């Protein structure tokens, strides 16, 4: 019996040792790392948090370029899946931890982190002046404090399948009416005109961002809204919602059940002729079907104005609780250099936020040109991610309700207006 | 009765056969699709692969440190389950066999954990793990698996201890055995079935957990299979062949383990997890 | 029930009497540290206001008032609550009902029962992420097995966008969950059937009971303990339903909140929606979790109390 009790205590002892041992072992690791850093400030390591899991290999090249000039700073790119990024980042930040460099969501979503005091101001960062005001705006708060270095612009527009257009004798539309005729022709031939689905609501605000300017003539409506002269009860806005509804007949069969992956597949496998989505889809579609020959066209309006909808999609910012702020600053400054901009355009197949960087990718360089001349801001992202739930969310879910037949066109506009009124200053 | 049996038996077979087909079909689809190329999946989503190609697996294994993920998952799951069994059998024995005024209260407290989403406490947990120096340590996952596995394990084990005949124990006590010896040499051996149940249930949830590794692990070298595979979803969202190969790789270890251990486990549940 | 303390009182030396109190300590420490403490800490958030992600002042019950009175939270809450209720009812009827029947069939000793038990249980070993992904594919409106099968059977009129149609999305998700969990129910019920003493059955048979009457009059009452256990577990699981919905329909409970549940709503409040532009309301999220916790706690306590009474009677 004594033997047994000894076993018991041995067990408890063992458990305690194991538990304590593991804890302290890791801790000692931490402190030894810390000591090393303070002893010789030469070896510094930075981590980058991001939602771009698909870009791991590309960021390794960025880091390699960075290390040519700064071999003493070790950088690790450690992304989290898009849909879980906010959760992971918010948790770490609330605990005073998190990556040194943070991939910041654009506009209000990212600025919320800054409001909570998690992001370091970088007003005096060298090199910020290469960017345009609009690009910097994406990570600047109302007081004019800058929080992020803008990286890439995203644009949304219609992509189209060149082969199908050629076979059907179709041209890129120059006016809204031509656009509709084009759709009707395709439909009559039994080809799905537009690859779009309504299962994931974020696709709907995105589609509205593309189609809307076709109704309300480029920036006019946007500017009046910002000035508080017009709001979402305006007839033009209602018309843009009605137009969205009318487009449904050009969507694939069972569009209410299709999500992002499904519509990309429809377009990439040439089952649909057009694909209204963002510039970031170019490499993905090409990977899925390398033989696909596709181009883009800007949204034409009734008066024949053409628009590409753009915004800054992400900036890099510095964690206010970072232990290596100096090194982080060096890295952020690197992101403003031309070398980085060129590498970025080449490797990422995206539009750089830095002006004047050209690309070898034909589609992309055309798109960059269109962005420079025909852009309108994607206002749902740039101006209407405030409110709780956000105005953008309200628009998305109400549009989804409309496509499902549960919500009337006027009620979509009404709900959006009601929400915007609760927080959007020009409406108050 | 006799007329009845002619019709009821075939009917029974039809029912179990249909349900079994529905149960197995998606798993079969996953495994079959993993041998196809992306193009084949879209052209012929439901048919058999035209040829068995292991290419997707090869490219996948060259891109993802699967063995690291696998080893981490094994360590986390095995240590978690072992710890759960040890701490819960001790506690359940105490609660089921000793009637102090507080034993029911302790039991109740243990059950509370089933009734609330633990995600709620993620920020305090993160701070706790950091203070313990367990961020990026497999121990953070092990402790979470043990802690979240305790409620259901306690429910099953306590229920089981209560059904054990007291006579066995009393006979052992007469022989002068202590509590540990009674637990270890008398009760646990006859509880093998219940332990089998508890082991499999906890193993499944430890193996498949992705929320805690998502939050606590950022180093690639410490990631477990579900989290490693989740990043695959982002990296290869357009390459469906790889995606299915990844899903199959992530699920196969559990499926195999289940087939090896299923007999023991089934007996475990059927032998009286309930009463 | 038992009184095992009596013999130990007589025989043990005093020091080994207290060692027994060490038995629950390891479990209590781990559970207390990693479950109780964080939950209690987080529940207390429901009484504070939050500015962004920073905790502000103590505001008493303000968050609860907001949750129930301010739109759209109020209607979202009841909408989600209703879906949890539907979740519970369908799971009870379809999953547990079918599981009961399947267990009965296996209990009647059919051939290959080992295989069938394993087959029913196999889905349970998969990760929910895998389950969600697979079923999204099977239910795909244009390529998925379900619609293709309907077409081959000449039932095109029944084809639907199963997960995109608010009339079917919730029910389909619940059925997938039934697919996932049915094996566990079968095993629990089978254990119950096998625990019924054969004398009782023999006696009933001699009384002339058979077929359906046998099942409803004899088996059903005797199975009440296992039905209750499955009932409680299904109840808890239904009201915490989250992972499958999140994997298949995202954190918005799409389409148009038709698959929203309390736990999904909570996740959206506490962590923001999974798309880029979510806003967080940690205080409201904690208030919601507190309500959910209290509701489950009260209902299960009542349930368990009923069960204990039954135990005593039997």
UniProtKB/TrEMBL annotation, chain A:
PROSITE patterns assigned: PROKAR_LIPOPROTEIN
Domain of life: Bacteria
UniProt xrefs under InterPro entries: Bact_solute-bd_prot1, SBP
Pfam family name, one: SBP_bac_1
UniProt name for this protein: Sugar ABC transporter substrate-binding protein
Organism per entry: Viridibacillus arvi
Lineage: Bacteria, Bacillati, Bacillota, Bacilli, Bacillales
Automatic annotation (TrEMBL), chain B:
Annotated keywords: Cell membrane, Membrane, Transmembrane, Transmembrane helix, Transport
Domain ABC transmembrane type-1 as annotated: residue spans: 70-261
Membrane topology: Multi-pass membrane protein
Transmembrane segments: 12-35, 69-93, 105-127, 139-161, 182-204, 240-261
GO biological process entries: transmembrane transport
Intracellular or extracellular location(s): Cell membrane
SUPFAM superfamilies: MetI-like
CC annotations in GO: plasma membrane
PROSITE patterns linked to this entry: ABC_TM1
Origin superkingdom: Bacteria
Chief location bin: membrane
Family: Belongs to the binding-protein-dependent transport system permease family.
Name of the protein in its database record: Sugar ABC transporter permease
Species assigned in the record: Viridibacillus arvi
Automatic annotation (TrEMBL), chain C:
Keyword Lyase: no
Compartments reported by the entry: Cell membrane
PANTHER family xref list: BLL4140 PROTEIN
Keyword list, A-Z: Cell membrane, Membrane, Transmembrane, Transmembrane helix, Transport
The name this protein goes by in its record: ABC transporter permease
Every ABC transmembrane type-1 domain range: 77-303
Membrane topology: Multi-pass membrane protein
The keyword Iron-sulfur is annotated on this UniProt entry: no
The family this protein is said to belong to: Belongs to the binding-protein-dependent transport system permease family.
GO CC annotations, alphabetized: plasma membrane
A GO BP annotation: transmembrane transport
